[in-house]
Amino acid sequence: MQTLDFNTLLSTNTYPGRGIALGIDESGENAVIVYFIMGRSVNSRNRIFEESEDGIITKAYDESLMTDPHLIIYAPVRDMGDGRVIVTNGDQTDTIRDFLKDGKTFEEALRTRTFEDDMPNCTPRISGLVEVKNGACMYKLSILKSDEHDETSVQRFFYEYPQPKAGIGHFIHTYKCDGTPIPSFEGEPEKVTLKGDIEQLALDTWMNLNEDNKVSLYVSFINLKSGETDTIIINKHDQE
Length: 240
Hints:
By secondary structure, the protein is of the alpha+beta class. The chain is built from 5 helices and 13 strands. The protein has a single domain, classed as 4-Layer Sandwich (Glutamine Phosphoribosylpyrophosphate, subunit 1, domain 1). A 7-stranded antiparallel β-sheet has the order 3-4-5-6-7-8-9. The chain has a 6-stranded antiparallel β-sheet with strand order 11-10-1-2-12-13, with helices on one face. The protein starts with 5 loop residues before the first helix and ends in a 5-residue tail after the last strand.
């Protein structure tokens, strides 16, 4: 698979929707998690990321503008506390957490879920799991999508990366591009470059997301040896 420039992918797509990129930084010392949200409606744009005791949550920036919390308010990131971190674009984060706590798998959890009930878009559910153990990292990605916006037909795809390479990640997003209805992501997760330290990666990612549609960004580096985590959160509303 061709390795693509992450910044170019972002800058040339006005609406990838919500996106997850997982991988290893250029130094080979840190697992990388990137998660961002975008929005076209007032309801979708009226959000910020806020740190929680085990990750982050989305919340309304202005409670008076929140018209429907359904599919908008959730915990995108949950740290299991055992080297495993879950990142998703919806409340399936908690489904995965509960299954893992019961000794079950990422895949088993997601086989109980389907795409979002937001016809006609049938927005895919994208999910990732990072595991840091014994100085190494592996990660998984998944997408649950409809068959060409058919609400009666779900498709579930799972991807596993047990031996990631330094400076490389895999990027999956809800939408192929903007449109009406919005076309779902197609194909395997895109193989992308992950350049720079956490500050540079966060800045580059934020600057290359579409200015009108970007809402919030979360970037985390997990040191493979110590397990220590460094996190950056950027909210558009905090910059206004």
